[in-house]
Amino acid sequence: MHAMEWSVTTAPSRLAGPVPLQQHPRYAAACTALGRSVLWLRLGPQDAPLAHALILSRHWPGLGRAALVSRGPVWSPELTPAARSGALHALVRGLRRTHAAVIATPDRVHGVDPLDQCGLLDLVTPMTVAQLELSGDAAAQRARLHGKWRNRLVRAEAADVCVDITQMPPDPDHWLLREEAAQARTRRYRRLPPAFAAAWAAQGPGAAALLVAHQRRVPVAGMLFLRHGNAASYHVGWTGRRGRTLCAHNLLMWRAMDYLAETGTTRLDLDLIDTQTAPSLARFKLGTGAVAVTLGTTRISAPGTALVARIAARLPPPAPEPAARAGGGPVTR
């Protein structure tokens, strides 16, 4: 096999540095537990891989098999941006041989979308995620909090609120998942099913961290974090009326940052930020000191899309979305 070819492989036993949740073996295991088809591909030789990619494969009625490459591949640091772009193009072409459609959302490489000028059809404009580096001691981390966010934290710390940190049980009917599901229905946002969190938690001690804020033994807020290697991802959060008054989510996030850093996490991914539909949530996430990271455009390769892409390339680009302002508002997701 040529050194720069993709081949089917098993889940990598070791990944260098923090990797996105969607490219970690625990994500593959959780999806498999829910009946999804997954595929691991490796670039280069087995003893010295240059990249790994986790592919989700599903059947689309009327179209056939579709492959989803979300925030991948995970590259070896030695691979140049040009080589990464070429390898990703080759990955999409290779997947089209066995799938009717391929949808890819890559991370940018040094600020450049590796699928730019590739002839694929733009499907979704670039999304933005919040990433928080958990570096330095608690004092340094606290100094990076934005002023209003820190003020709300101080208010929560002065209140009669207790925080428990435990391992999330593998129970899809857990009270936090039920509360968050009801919240999602009320606020009409999409979410992964509770069974996904349960499947993640079932992968062993330390896989999922549950933080609950209590006042007089009554839960007023909760947060769930999924751990993947030396990174972690905020998964779900819920707060009641009393929790919002007490700024309980500021306290939970702060305790999570401290706990995760102490137990080996170097980066906390706070998921998407959307200043149009959830400005308060975006301000809350950025108020932690997280930075806004723009992903690559979501693109699709399917029958007929190349022609549409050539036509779309002649149209003017859409206006950029306004940047989110940092702050300390309560979580509204």
From TrEMBL:
What SUPFAM superfamilies has UniProt attached to this entry?
Acyl-CoA N-acyltransferases (Nat) (SSF55729)
Write down what this protein is called: GNAT family N-acetyltransferase
UniProt entry keywords in alphabetical sequence: Transferase
Q: What positions does the domain BioF2-like acetyltransferase occupy?
A: 177-270
Q: Which PANTHER family match?
A: LIPID II:GLYCINE GLYCYLTRANSFERASE
Q: May I ask which residue range the UniProt record assigns to the signal sequence?
A: none
For molecular function, the Gene Ontology terms on record are:
transferase activity
One Pfam match, given by its short name, reads: Acetyltransf_6
